[in-house]
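Page 47, continued from p. 46.
Same chain as before, 183 aa.
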Amino acid sequence: MLIIYYIMSTNNFYSNNTTHIYSIDCENEFEFDDTVSNIQCDLPKLWKKTNEYEDSLESYPGNKFAYFEIWDSIAGYALEIVIVAVVREGYYAGANFDYSVNYKFEGEYCDTIEAMKQDFLHEMKCNGKAGLGQMLANQNYFTDLENEAQSAIRDLEKVYSEYTNPINCAGVFSNGGAIYTAA
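Result:
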């Protein structure tokens, strides 16, 4: 069994949500653009293309290049889950693919599907419909939404794995150096 190690002097990649670090090592901008374009084309049809700069991470800037939206309502309240595909530059070299998930209840961001459910229950209670709210919340409605989001994420990671080198961070030294292994 061959084990490949990549040793870098710092954490080269930032991947917050994916199961692996989906990395690419590009020689030029054409290769980078081609990889992103190939991933966009191979995503299921419900994914929409975009090209927005993401500046939330100072050391690892990136671009949002696709997104998947799940819209629904329960008892007249709007629910939305948006999965955003992101490509980030490596700190020193290459790039990696990640995603983020945004939950919204009535247009307001929530941290998790559970927080969205709690906001719904709170609104129902404030409107004198706590019993109805609890009954609706217990019918796996929010679980079904989360399952649909997880299915879209599995599709995204499957496409990522076709065009990248999936790796894992095997360890980080006290001086900041990192070791990556093939996934």
